[in-house]
Amino acid sequence: MTRTQYFVAASIDGFIADAEGGLQWLFQFNDVEGVEAHYKTFLAGVGALAMGAATYEFILGEGLKEWPYVGIPTWVFTHRTLPGFPGADIRFTADDVGAVHEEMVRAAAGKHIWLVGGGNLVAQFARRGLLEEIWLAVIPVVLGAGAPLLPAALPGPLELTAVTRFPRGMIELRYVVPPSR
User: Fold this and answer.
1) ∠ CA 81-148-57 to the nearest 5 degrees?
2) Where in the chain does DSSP place strands (E)?
3) What is the predicted pLDDT for the residue at 161?
4) What is the DSSP string of 36-55?
5) Which helix (H) or strand (E) holds 85?
6) Alpha carbons 37 and 99: distance in angstroms, whole number
7) Contact at 8 Å (CB) between 177 and 158?
8) Distance between alpha carbon 98 and the CA centroid of its chain, in Å?
9) One digit per residue, pLDDT tens: the chain, 181 residues?
């Protein structure tokens, strides 16, 4: 069954990007033992992606030669015209997340939908009762300011279903979001 998941990393104080929109604080943990294999296992279960324009522009700004999500249809939610990425299945939309979610479920073909970011886009899914799981990697840094993890209230409490420990103080908390009433 397709589940809509927010797989994300945040600082201890709840930010997914620093005050300038940067991720250097996070990249210093890329080489932590087990993280890459964990990510690859997660990604193997993903059949569709959603991201906001800022996340997409961040990826473009990394100067990658190949789209990192080859073979996975990706919806970019934007009200602006953005450049495409050669060889990628990217669908730009300004439509409501509720209408697009149905398309994403069909495209995922039984795999999961990954809400890549950012927090404001995920909040739109959450407000419509479409967010089902949060996979939160807690990174042992304090940023003091930045882009918040999720600027929306969720029906609660969340159900903790798994805890994964990584070296260097990283943990991942996996939660199920209760359905909206």
Assistant:
1) 25
2) 4-11, 15-17, 46-52, 74-77, 90-93, 112-117, 133-139, 147-148, 159-165, 171-176
3) 98
4) HHHHHHHHHTEEEEEEEHHH
5) none
6) 33
7) yes
8) 17
9) 999 999 999 999 999 999 999 999 999 999 999 999 999 999 999 999 999 999 999 999 988 999 999 999 999 999 999 999 988 999 999 999 999 999 999 999 999 999 997 889 999 999 999 999 999 999 999 999 999 999 988 988 999 999 999 999 999 999 999 987 6
**Residue 115: beta bridge partners?**
50
Q: Among candidates 109, 135, 139, which has minimal Cα distance to 122?
A: 135
Task: Count Cα atoms within 13 angstroms, Cβ side, for 54.
Answer: 13
Give the tokens for residue 98. Answer: 């509720």
Place of tokens 């992606």: 49
Give CA separation, 165 vs 35, 81, 134, 171, in Å. Answer: 10, 41, 16, 5
**Tally of CB atoms within 10 A around 47:** 19
pTM of the model: 0.94
Give which of 8, 4, 22, 33 is closest to 135, Cα–Cα: 8
Q: Classify strands 46-52 and 171-176 as parallel, antiparallel or unpaired.
A: unpaired
